[in-house]
From TrEMBL, chains A, B:
Entry's transmembrane regions: 212-232, 238-256, 309-332, 352-372, 395-416, 496-519, 586-608
Pfam families registered for this protein in UniProt: Anoctamin (PF04547)
Residue intervals of the Anoctamin transmembrane domain: 195-621
Protein name from the UniProt record: Anoctamin
A GO cellular-component term linked to this record: plasma membrane
Subcellular location: Membrane
Gene name per UniProt: Ano10
Lineage: Eukaryota, Metazoa, Chordata, Craniata, Vertebrata
């Protein structure tokens, strides 16, 4: 292995820029020199052994650098990050440089063996793992302290010397991808494998889930339409619809796990070993010895963190929840006022006015969700979690609880306190549709319009009439560095999660919700695709094997929806009429049915295997081989 | 590695017998010769490289063989099975022969580095992995077919040539263990580490769980006593007791996971890699290619198995459940008859007669459970599962469902159909106490008495007055080979599971159940210890990291008990009196409380980490080290 590192040529003729590094204006010369030297330095000397070139524009050098790597370097990097690729015998195996010949499509001159997203991921990994040796500080910046083993890039980022690192778009590939993805109106699947090659597994998995979820909603939507069209109000039909919905939602979540396993097996991430998690960039503390690694690094007492969580964050979240409920009560006052107004002067205008409170409330909910999001991010960051995963879990928990209450509290109140099914239906429809329109607009269309305007201005400045693919490298870099940053799939999943809530929590009252969800998701696929390709900087690929905590969130929602739907059905006058003598029997029957449904749900989740049989066999085969290899040693 | 195998001396002067092999009387000479040759043969020739000696008694050679191994052979075997031992730096690591010097208490002349149970486990593993090479059949038995890779010992067992293999007791050690375990009456913990050294992890973990469970029941028992003594019938006290019980049962099950992790980390099994599972002995099918291993071995279509499960086993289980309910109805007829009798001639005798139906029913339940057990074993074996674990899971599921219904159906019927709390209390007490007495008797005391009688007869035959520790080897082997075989911890866990049901399902009606459970478990520890040490053959040690499916079973029971207790409290006249106006409000309140309790349960299970923090850090440290080692390669 050591030999392969040594015969790497530090300068290669065909330099292909992959990643852009933007340093702050006025960064000291000695810092730049030290940093670039560390990037190109040999592995044995503690460098990253990558290639780096300054970007030269008409205005001269602008502290923007392009990073690339030789083909061999990338292959060795693929081994370091533990990429899993397909072999000639169609099995998936962890790539190693020594066994490279056994992999499908491998040839020493095939520079497409690794996708561009993979190359960029490797470079990001190598840059982040560039660690301080004996430096006590960043040269030229005495206040930016270093200690042995500290990631240099992370310190540069937190001290503001490094503005950003982002991967370059590949204009050719992007054009092809856009065309096959959303360029033409067609009915069919998204090119998930191409998306994965270009954007990486996390984003491809999101689009896979979005597509799957849309397809899964279609049966609900199809069954829901006649309820609206023929205004069916029969008891048995509603019960059938709700029962179908509840079981269906369990089935689709279980089947998704299987589809996810198929996708990530094909992409290799199902087999990828988990890397050891380094502290997240914002983590700080006094220097101490990490009990796990034995290295000197900042440590922060877990008790202090717990105190911050339970004494500050938890009360703050509760306060926000209370505030959200308070706003809800104002909404009901407004609603009452609109109703009074409508009854006093009955006109077309006044009946339209009936919808105004809901719409205002929907807008307020969206605004509150966004403000709370910032507060939650600030608080979670202040809690000073050591690992990114722990930070993410705490953030997601905070945001989910608040958004759930904020979006659904009014519906729960209408349903179970006011018992007003008409208002529930109207409120549900207004909230669902308004939030969908707002989201699509705020998330994709508005940024797209901004971006387009900016691009036009840029091009005018450059006095060029070239199309995107003809741009020079420096023009491309300058354009892309001003684009917004995509902060991950969190908001996208959250939107789907809330939509799932609107569809399933009160499905027996408003069967049309699934129809709106399907329509929204179809346009969502297009607007999200547009957003990824045109509005934001290219994000770094992130390998992942599943949708993580969202699976749990969706499953929890489907459990809650069993409870709400059972109560709703129990409250309907049709069901009421079936038990004329005893309300007791009614409630007991509903409770019994609810428990039965929950039991069936859990049994189904238990019985349906999480991975299809052929994937299970392939995994068992790999495990068997590694055990055999261990025995041979 | 290969070198270390070659310098093994096949015959060593200090032969220590560890395992006994009993062949059938009249086994052909050529078979014995071939089998013993394979056992002593070099690893390189496909042998097990163990030592074997025939047992010579006064009656000559009796087809009983003693197997041992050299010290070096055992150390190499420890590496093969992947034993985890404590290092000099107090960390737990997988033992390898090359790194032997880094392990605590290791010395080339220390023959106690491996416990006797570990040595026996290694020998069992090596014997079971003795595989056919080119033999088409067992020499001398053309009907006992072999194919390359088939385990020879398993074929010998299934064709009846091999009667049994069992590990020898160590009379000295056993005496010491008995003394510290149950020899003197004392209040304190069991010597779990010594039990683990002598009997292995599975059995030690059972006794650990039994002890933990008994301690965990004490708070319930302590709180339960005043309810009985002062005949408290206040509503609030019952609610408090039930609520405490429900949350307590969640806490104890979660805390057990942590204690289990502490124990198995110390014993090394928490870190042990799972071995590849070979087909179970009884598995049969036509020869084919296993898709996982690529080896030729019997394959059996999964569809056929599914058909057997769903078309035969499932209907059979349903029929048994129906039969159990039928027997229950007969019991209620008897109960009615006893009541009538009591009312007609009121006397002491007739009031005693009131208990007779329950006692008869309890005995019948036990008998039915035992008969059903055989049927379930037969059916599950007929389903022809490939893996022992899959066989066990199907067997446990079958047995649990039936035993649950069989034991608790009558109680559910009394509680929720007859609404007779007095009968419920009486029936519960009778069932619990009768089943405990029956179990202790049938499981330990009766076999112990049989064994003792047999031993006395044996000794009389041998005309010797020696104590157990003075017996000659041949006498010891002859005595032990006639002892019963311990078939694993299944029945012991099942007993605890049903006991947990009696205690928790109706805890708010009969708080005294926990007291009986504690008393029973204290004697259970002693009688089970007696059973292990005196009644049964020594079982082979089985490494395990947790109590497996039983954790899930206990957790399911505690969820069900939330439901039953909430209903029971809701039905009590005291609670009834709190809602004089509306039964509706009562039922809704009960349902709300139930859902809240369930939610709290799930959140608690989620929040309490499954492993204590220091074990988590130790595991992370090992993972980090292996990742670092991989990088260095």
């Amino acid at each position: 292995m050591m030999e392969s590192w040594s015969f790497l040529d530090p300068v290669e003729s065909n330099f292909r820029p992959l990643v852009v590094i933007e340093l702050a204006k006025g960064t000291k010369e000695e810092t730049i020199e030290w940093f670039t030297k560390r990037i190109v330095d040999k592995k044995a000397n503690g460098g990253a052994q990558l290639l780096i070139k300054p970007l030269v524009t008409e205005n001269g050098v602008e502290n923007i650098y392009l990073v690339g790597a030789s083909h061999l370097r990338l292959l060795l990097g693929a081994e370091t990050v533990g990429l899993v690729k397909e072999c000639n015998d169609n099995s998936m195996r962890t790539f190693t440089y020594s066994s490279r010949k056994t992999f499908k499509h491998f040839a020493d001159d095939n520079h497409n063996f690794l996708t561009m997203a993979e190359c960029q991921y490797i470079i990001k990994h190598e840059l982040e793992n560039l660690r301080a040796k004996n430096e006590k500080m960043i040269p030229g910046y005495p206040q930016a302290k270093l200690y042995p083993g500290k990631s240099i890039v992370r310190r540069l980022l937190t001290s503001g010397i490094l503005v950003q690192i982002f991967p370059l778009h590949d204009r050719e590939e992007l054009k092809k991808l856009c065309h096959s993805w959303y360029g033409r109106v067609k009915i069919g699947y998204q090119p998930l494998d191409d998306i994965r090659c270009y954007f990486g597994e996390t984003i491809a998995l999101y689009f896979g889930f979005l597509e799957y979820f849309t397809f899964a909603l279609i049966p609900m939507a199809v069954i829901g339409i006649p309820y609206y069209m023929f205004a069916w109000e029969d008891y048995d039909k509603y019960v059938m619809f709700a029962t179908f919905n509840l079981l269906w939602s369990t089935v689709i979540l279980e089947v998704w796990k299987r589809i996810c396993a198929i996708l990530t097996y094909r992409w290799g991430t199902l087999l990828m070993k988990r890397q050891f998690e380094e502290p997240r960039p914002g983590f700080h503390g006094v220097l101490g010895i990490n009990p796990v690694t034995g290295r000197e690094e900042p440590v922060y007492s877990s008790i202090k963190r717990q105190l911050r969580i339970y004494l500050v964050s938890l009360p703050f979240v509760c306060l926000c929840l209370y505030f959200s409920l308070y706003v809800m009560m104002i909404y009901f006052d407004l609603e009452q006022w609109a109703l009074d107004y409508h009854q006093e002067n009955e006109s077309n205008f006044s009946s339209l006015m009936l919808y105004v409170p809901s719409i205002i409330y929907a807008v307020v909910i969206e605004i509150m969700n966004r403000i709370y999001r910032y507060a939650a991010e600030f608080l979670t960051s202040w809690e000073n979690h050591r690992l990114e995963s722990s930070y993410q879990n705490h953030l997601i928990l905070k945001v989910l609880v608040f958004n759930f209450l904020n979006c659904f509290a009014s519906l729960f109140y209408i349903a179970f306190v006011l018992f007003d099914m008409k208002l529930l239906r109207q409120s549900l429809a207004t909230l669902l549709i308004t939030s969908q329109i707002l989201n699509q607009f705020a998330e994709s269309l508005f940024p797209y319009w901004l971006q387009k305007r900016y691009n036009r201005r840029m091009k005018k400045q450059m006095c060029s009439k070239k199309t995107d693919t003809d741009l020079s490298l420096s023009e491309q870099v300058n354009m892309e560095k001003e684009m917004g940053t995509y902060f991950g799939t969190f908001d996208d999943y959250l939107e789907l999660f809330l939509q799932f809530g609107y569809v399933s929590l009160f499905s027996c009252v408003y069967p049309l919700a699934a129809v709106f969800a399907v329509l929204n998701n179809i346009t969502e696929i297009y607007s999200d695709a547009l957003k990824m390709c045109r509005v934001y900087k290219r994000p770094f690929a992130e390998p992942t094997a599943n949708i993580g905590v969202w699976q749990l969130a969706f499953e929890t929602m489907s459990v809650i929806s069993v409870v709400t739907n059972c109560i709703l059905i129990g409250m309907s006058p049709e069901v009421d009429a079936l038990f004329p003598d005893s309300k007791m029997d009614l409630v007991l029957t509903v409770a019994l049915v609810e428990h039965l449904l929950l039991a069936i749900k859990f049994i189904m989740a238990f019985v349906i295997p999480d991975k299809p049989r052929d994937i299970q066999i392939k995994l068992a085969k790999l495990e068997f081989e590694s055990l055999e290899a261990l025995k041979q040693q």
